[in-house]
C-alpha cells in the first residue's frame, strides 16, 4: 500500500514515515514519568514534530512486560487533554489503546488512527462490543493491528517457541480479514509484527530479517523496535542509551520494507532515514545507466 487512509489524512507511504511516541504514563519501560503530566506531554508532541515526526502516537497505559491494567476512566483522564492538543498540530494523531470505549471516545474527537497491541480482540467485561465494531463503524479511521503472544502480564514469562513468522503472519491475516469482511478498506489497515511482545531475542531478529514476508498480506507494515530489550540484549545498553541501536533497527526495518517506524528518538531516526534516502536516490541514476 502506498497510502494509509486515516480519519483526516491520506498518508503518503511512498517514503517511510516516522511515528513519534508520546507516553502519558508513569511506568512505560523507557521513558515512564518523563511526560506524565498533560503539559509535559503536549510539549513533547511539539518537540517530536520539530525533530521530524510525521505523526504522533499517544498512549496512556503502559504495555511493558508485567504492566498492570489501567481503568478506562484513568486512561481517558490521562490522554484526552493531550489528544485535544495534538489534534490542533496539523498531523495525523494515533492513540495507542485496546479498550473499545476509549477508541470510540478519541475517534469522536477526530483522532486519525487506532494503534492496538491486542489487534482489536479485547472486550470489556460484560460488554460484547469490540474494537472491530468501533473501527468498522467509523468508516474512515486508520488502524494498526499488532501481534502479541499472551498478554502484557505474562508474555515474557512464557514466550513463543520455535519459528514465529508463520504464526505471526497467520494471526495478522485473520485479524485483517475480519476487518475486510466488515467493510474496512485494506488501505486503512497497517500491521505490526509485535517486536518484544511474547518473543525471544532471536525470534525478534528473525522477524526483522524476514519482515518482507509480511507483505504478502497486502497491508502496510509498521515496525516498533524503539529502545526494545532485544536491542539491549545485543548491545548491553540500558533503555535510555539505546538511541543508536534503535535508529539502526529502524533503518534496517525500512530497508526491509516497513513504511512506518514508531520511535522515541525522532531526531536520530530522521537523520538515519535521510542517509538511507540519499543512498537510494543516488543508486537510481546508476541503475538506469547500467540497464
Give structural notes.
The chain is globular and about 55 Å long. It has one domain (3-290): TIM Barrel (Alpha-Beta Barrel), CATH 3.20.20.20. The chain has helices at 38-51, 72-86, 100-109, 131-138, 165-181, 201-209, 229-235, 243-255, 266-290, and strands spanning 3-5, 10-12, 17-23, 55-59, 93-96, 113-116, 142-146, 189-192, 220-223, 260-263. Strand 6, helix 4 and strand 7 (142-146) form a beta-alpha-beta unit. Helix 3 (100-109) runs parallel beside helix 4 (131-138). It is of the alpha/beta class. It starts with a strand and ends with a helix. The longest helix is centred in the C-terminal third of the chain and has 25 residues, at 266-290.
Q: In total, how many beta strands?
A: 10
Q: Class, according to the CATH hierarchy?
A: Alpha Beta
Helix content estimate:
40-55%
The helix/strand series, from N terminus to C terminus, equals EEEHEHEHEHEHEHEHHEH
Looking across the biggest beta sheet, what order are the strands in?
Answer: 3-4-5-6-7-8-9-10
Bulk shape:
globular
Amino acid at each position: 500500500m502506498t497510502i494509509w487512509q486515516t480519519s483526516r489524512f491520506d498518508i503518503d507511504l511512498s517514503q517511510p514515515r516516522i511515528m513519534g511516541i508520546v507516553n502519558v504514563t508513569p511506568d512505560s519501560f523507557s521513558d515512564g514519568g518523563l511526560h506524565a503530566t498533560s503539559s509535559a506531554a503536549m510539549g513533547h508532541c511539539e518537540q517530536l514534530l520539530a525533530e521530524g515526526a510525521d505523526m504522533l502516537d499517544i498512549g496512556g497505559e503502559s504495555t511493558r512486560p508485567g504492566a498492570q491494567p489501567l481503568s478506562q476512566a484513568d486512561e481517558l483522564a490521562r490522554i484526552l487533554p493531550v489528544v485535544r492538543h495534538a489534534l490542533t498540530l496539523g498531523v495525523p494523531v494515533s492513540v495507542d489503546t485496546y479498550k473499545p470505549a476509549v477508541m470510540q471516545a478519541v475517534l469522536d474527537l477526530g483522532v486519525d488512527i487506532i494503534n492496538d497491541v491486542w489487534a482489536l480482540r479485547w472486550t470489556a467485561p460484560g460488554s460484547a462490543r469490540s474494537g472491530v465494531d468501533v473501527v468498522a463503524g467509523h468508516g474512515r479511521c486508520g488502524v494498526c493491528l499488532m501481534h502479541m503472544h499472551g498478554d502484557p502480564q505474562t508474555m515474557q514469562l512464557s514466550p513463543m517457541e520455535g519459528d514465529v513468522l508463520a504464526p505471526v503472519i497467520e494471526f495478522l491475516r485473520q485479524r485483517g480479514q475480519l476487518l475486510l469482511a466488515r467493510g474496512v478498506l485494506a488501505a486503512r489497515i497497517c500491521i505490526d509484527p509485535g517486536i518484544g511482545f511474547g518473543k525471544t531475542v532471536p525470534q525478534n531478529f528473525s522477524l526483522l530479517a524476514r519482515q518482507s514476508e509480511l507483505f504478502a498480506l497486502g497491508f502496510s507494515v509498521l515496525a516498533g523496535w524503539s529502545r526494545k530489550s532485544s536491542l539491549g540484549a545485543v548491545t548491553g545498553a540500558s533503555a535510555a542509551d539505546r538511541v543508536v541501536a534503535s535508529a539502526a533497527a529502524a533503518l534496517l526495518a525500512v530497508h526491509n520494507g516497513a513504511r512506518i517506524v514508531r520511535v522515541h528518538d525522532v531526531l536520530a531516526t530522521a537523520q538515519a532515514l535521510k542517509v538511507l534516502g540519499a543512498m537510494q536516490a543516488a543508486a537510481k541514476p546508476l541503475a538506469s545507466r547500467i540497464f
